[in-house]
Automatic annotation (TrEMBL):
Residues 34-98 form the J domain. It is a multi-pass membrane protein. The gene is LOC107419876. This is Chaperone protein dnaJ 50. It comes from Ziziphus jujuba (Chinese jujube). Pfam families: DnaJ (PF00226).
């Protein structure tokens, strides 16, 4: 005779196997019932037949028609079965679960994805995401800008510029009697507003640089770039026209990989000399760079 513990283990294992054999993946839809049986239709019934069966049972078991508690419970099951079978997607999933009861995890995942998955309009999600990212971006830019301004205001160069501006506003005379520090601070703030502080890497925030605004203007940007490239190709590739000064300057700057702000600080004479070397041509650029390297060695 087998020990009692072995018998209990065998009973539990048998119950587990039996629970798997009764298709547990379909139980998540209509519990232990069959959705088709609840509505009294076959699995081949069309949408019209399912709808008629549901309305017929509703007249019999709806709480407004039948106050019996058992009838109320049955109506809840009927309504749930109808919700599953009236939708083509969920009905297809239920039919698949019936035909493939062994794919328990797959059928369960499909069910929860259909019923509890994110059903928000993707466009609303995209707009919300862009708004949140743009808000964080704007706040981050303001924080960086204010921190940079605070650091600049502590430098001697800034204080010298502030004193020079104060002398200019006062006609060259400054009142040395400082009776009120708060007044001096207010005066300093007023003068600092007149100073145009351009801090590289921490520019003043602009709504045109936000991700959301750039995304909205993306079609316009793409169209503008396409038109620009089209005109460039027609003018210089097809018609073989000579480069204009602006375009030659752009090619020179791009060839030398000079940032726009640094290029703006170069004097006009140097720009003309660089443009005249036609550095957008590979051979000219290589010769120029080799010459610059030799010049750098000589200075050392």
């Amino acid at each position: 005779m087998a020990p009692p513990a072995t018998i209990r283990w065998f009973a539990v294992a048998s119950a587990l196997v039996f629970s798997l054999l009764i298709s547990p993946s379909t139980a998540i839809y209509c519990d232990e019932d069959d959705c088709y049986d609840l509505l009294g239709v076959s699995q081949n019934a069309n949408a019209s037949e399912i709808k008629k069966a549901y309305y017929k049972l509703s007249l019999k078991h709806h709480p407004d028609k039948n106050p019996d508690p058992e009838s109320r419970k049955l109506f809840v099951k009927i309504a749930n079965a109808y919700e599953i079978l009236k939708d083509e997607a969920t009905r297809e999933q239920y039919d698949y679960a019936i035909a493939h009861p062994e794919e328990v995890f797959y059928n369960t995942a499909r069910y929860y994805r259909a019923y509890y998955g994110h059903k928000t309009d993707p466009r609303a999600v995209l707009v919300g995401l862009l708004l949140v990212l743009s808000g964080f971006q704007y706040l981050n830019q303001w924080t960086r800008y204010n921190q940079a301004i605070a650091m600049v205001k502590k430098t001697p160069a800034y204080k010298n510029r502030l004193r020079a501006l104060e002398l200019e506003r006062s006609g060259g005379t400054v009142n040395k009697k400082k009776s009120n520090k708060q007044l001096d601070k207010k005066k300093e703030e007023d003068l600092s507003k007149e100073l145009d502080l351009q801090i590289k890497g921490a520019e003043k925030p602009s709504i045109w640089e936000l991700i959301g605004v750039r995304f909205i203007l993306l079609p316009y940007t793409i169209g503008k770039l396409s038109l620009w490239y089209g005109c460039w190709f027609w003018r210089y590739k097809v018609k073989k026209a000579p480069y204009s000064w602006e375009d030659a300057t752009y090619l020179t700057q791009r060839s030398l990989r000079v940032p726009p702000d640094a290029w703006g600080n170069i004097d006009e004479f140097t720009k003309e000399d660089l443009v005249g070397k036609r550095l957008w041509e590979k051979s000219n650029l290589e010769s120029y760079l080799a010459e610059m390297r030799k010049e750098s060695k000589r200075r050392r």
